[in-house]
């Protein structure tokens, strides 16, 4: 992997890492600004009943930049072998759904739409991971933590829907 990293110009590496990292930050910022109840996402999360194993809010701003960085590195490895092939198309599709989720779940406060989005995202992350693995084994392995986290986030999204039903 070191040779592959050294073979790619630093500007391309910066770009492949910056797109998910900056995009993730921007989607969170937009979700906060367009929030239907004018609440910060941290406040919303803390006010909801959470399913078992829900992490504290401090975990999310630590985990996501790491995941976005590893996604960017994985994509950089793939781009070296296949500039704009099917693996990259899957990558950008899942990235779009990833960015949309914050807006739906927190910005629009529509947990059900967020669940539909994240379920599709989970499928696309799985397909992207598989596709990356076929192009570059290391890239596929770098996507595994993101795949696991997305599955966990799907569980959390579904759990908050179930636990926060309006009283009848």
Automatic annotation (TrEMBL):
The record's InterPro entries line, in alphabetical order, gives: TspO/MBR-related_sf, TspO_MBR
User: Primary place of residence?
Assistant: membrane
Q: Which residues cross the membrane?
A: 13-32, 53-78, 90-106, 113-133, 145-163
Which residues lie in coiled coils? none
Name the keywords, alphabetized.
Membrane, Transmembrane, Transmembrane helix
Give a yes or no for keyword Transmembrane helix in this entry: yes
GO CC annotation terms, alphabetical: membrane
Kindly state a single biological-process term from the GO annotations of this entry: tetrapyrrole metabolic process
Q: Does the keyword Protease apply?
A: no
Kindly list the places in or outside the cell where this protein is found, as annotated in its UniProt entry: Membrane
Membrane disposition: Multi-pass membrane protein
Instruction: State one Pfam family annotation.
Output: TspO_MBR
Q: Which family does it belong to?
A: Belongs to the TspO/BZRP family.
Q: What is this protein called?
A: Tryptophan-rich sensory protein
């Amino acid at each position: 992997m070191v040779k592959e990293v050294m073979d790619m110009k630093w500007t391309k590496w910066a770009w492949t890492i910056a797109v998910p990292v900056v995009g993730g930050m921007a989607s969170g910022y937009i979700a906060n600004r367009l929030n239907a109840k004018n609440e910060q996402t941290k406040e919303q999360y803390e006010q909801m009943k959470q399913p078992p194993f829900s992490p504290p809010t401090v975990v999310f701003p630590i985990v996501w930049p790491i995941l976005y960085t590893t996604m960017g590195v994985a994509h950089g490895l793939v781009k070296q072998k296949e500039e704009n092939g099917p693996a990259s198309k899957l990558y950008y599709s899942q990235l779009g759904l990833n960015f949309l989720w914050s807006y739906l779940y927190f910005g629009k406060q529509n947990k059900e739409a967020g669940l539909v989005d994240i379920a599709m995202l989970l499928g696309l992350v799985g397909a992207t991971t598989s596709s990356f693995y076929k192009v570059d084994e290391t890239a596929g392995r770098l996507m595994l933590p993101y795949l696991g986290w997305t599955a966990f986030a799907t569980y959390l999204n579904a759990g908050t829907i179930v636990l926060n039903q309006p009283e009848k």
